[in-house]
Structure formats: C-alpha cells, structure tokens
Amino acid sequence: MDHSKILGVVLAGGKSLRFGEDKSQVKLKDKSLIDYVLSEVIDEFKELLIISNNSIKFQKSEKISVIKDFKNNLGPLGGVLTAMKWIKDNNKNYQWISTFPTDTPFFKKKILKDFYDKVSLQKSKLFFIKSNNTRHNIFGLWSIDLIDKLEGDLNKGNRKVEDWADSVGVEIINMKFDKNDPFFNINTKEDLEEAKVNLLND
Q1: CA 185 to CA 136: how far, in whole Å?
Q2: Contact assessment for residue 134 and residue 183, using Cβ atoms and an 8 Å cutoff
Q3: Which of 85, 92, 124, 146 is positioned for an S-S bond with 171, CB 3.0–4.6 A?
Q4: Hey, how many other C-beta atoms are within 10 angstroms of the C-beta on 166?
Q5: CB of 86 within 8 A of CB of 68?
Q6: The whole model's pTM is what?
Q7: How far is CA 58 from the centre of its chain?
Q8: Across 15-29, 127-141, 187-201, which has the greatest mean pLDDT?
Q9: Which of 121, 70, 76 is nearest to 96 (CA)?
Q10: What is the C-alpha separation between 128 and 104, in angstroms, rounded?
C-alpha cells in the first residue's frame, strides 16, 4: 500500500460529554491523550489532519494541520467528510484517509502497520479494525470515492458510523490481542484512573 496516498486524520471534534471536558487535552502521566496517538502515527504519513472545534494544544509539527468540522453536530462521520472536503478543496492527491480517535493511549503504530498489511484495497472502499470481538469504527481506512455518498447520507440524517459503514459494505480486519487491550478508550474519569493503572503495568 502506498502510504503517500493516505492522509492521517485524528478525529478530535467530539464533545466529550461523558468525560466532562475535552478528552484530547487530558493528561495521562505527563502527556496529553492526543499526543499519545500523534506520536504513534505521525511518522506513517506525509501529512496529518486534526479535526477539532476547540482550541487545543498538541505536539507541533509541520506535518500537522488543524481544522474545524465543516458543519457542527454531525458526529464522527461529519469529521470524516470534513477531511475529505479538505483534500478536495486543497487539491491534495490523497486517495484514502486513515482515521484515529484521541482517547486510546495504548494504541501502537505496529498495529497500524499490521492493519495495512491485511488490507486488500480491491475488496472494499472502507476498512475497520475488529479486535477480540469488538469492532472499532473510528480506526478506519476510507476511500475518497465515498465522499458524495457520505455527504448525501449525512444530509438525509444518517449519523451512526456503524450503520452507515454496513450500508456501504465495510471490510472488517480481525486482530487478536492476548494481553492488555490496545484499543482501551477513555470515556469517563473512571476510565482515566484505570488507564493510569494500566500504564504502570504496561
């Protein structure tokens, strides 16, 4: 797979309602959650795009651009469409976007490489990771060819990532992890405390 044709996209536009504040800025040990994912994926892409509707701090890099959702309250699918529109509006030659959340501090770049190795681009225009019987709808590889259908379906009111992905025919890449779950995500303050324990035992 030609990584130069993939734009890395970190979806940080969520409201973090269950957590009570912008999760991307929360510190785990001495590092913000968004910097955990950035540090793992930044070397894998020519450019990274962060979708955020807040003023956020993160590790600076010439590779990284930050933009707001083109329209509010569309959820993760709105963030995906925002990234696709950015590619079109800026005449970029990316053919795919690879999406990541901001709240999974144990995700490692080796998993991303394994994911790409298992992807057969001829099989689908959308790929998600599934690990230990859990599907991770934000860890996705999305073809830019989906832009018109995605925009049309969002305009019709479709918001659920899983339902929309199933409707277009997502290909699921299965992975298995015997030890700590690298997809553990932080939704609540209790999750953050659990992550601190996991970090000590990692």
Answers
A1: 10
A2: yes
A3: 124
A4: 11
A5: no
A6: 0.94
A7: 16
A8: 127-141
A9: 121
A10: 16
In order, the DSSP letters of 17-79 are: TTTTS-GGG-EETTEEHHHHHHHHHGGG-S-EEEE-SS-------TTEEEE--SSTT-HHHHH
pLDDT tens readout for residues 98-113 = 999 999 999 999 999 9
Phi and psi at residue 52, in whole multiples of 5°? -145, 140
Tokens encoding 126: 């959308």
Confidence of residue 180 (pLDDT cuts 50, 70, 90): confident
Q: How far apart are CA 10 and CA 130, in angstroms?
A: 19
Query: How far apart are the C-alpha atoms of 42 and 20, rounded to whole Å?
Result: 28
In whole angstroms, how large is the CA radius of gyration of the chain?
16
For residues 165 and 68, give the distance between their C-alpha atoms in angstroms, rounded to a whole number: 23
Please report which confidence band the pLDDT of residue 16 belongs to, taking 50, 70 and 90 as the band edges.
low
Q: What does 114-176 look like in DSSP terms, one character per residue?
A: HHHHH--TTT-SEEEEEETTEEEEEEEEEEGGGHHHHHHHHHTT---HHHHHHHHTPEEEEE-
Question: Model confidence over 112-160: pLDDT tens digits?
Answer: 999 999 999 999 999 999 998 899 999 999 999 999 999 999 999 999 9
Instruction: Place domain 3-201 in its CATH homologous superfamily.
Output: Spore Coat Polysaccharide Biosynthesis Protein SpsA; Chain A (3.90.550.10)
Query: Which tens digit of pLDDT belongs to each residue from 37-93?
Result: 999 999 999 999 999 998 899 988 999 999 999 998 899 999 999 999 999 999 999
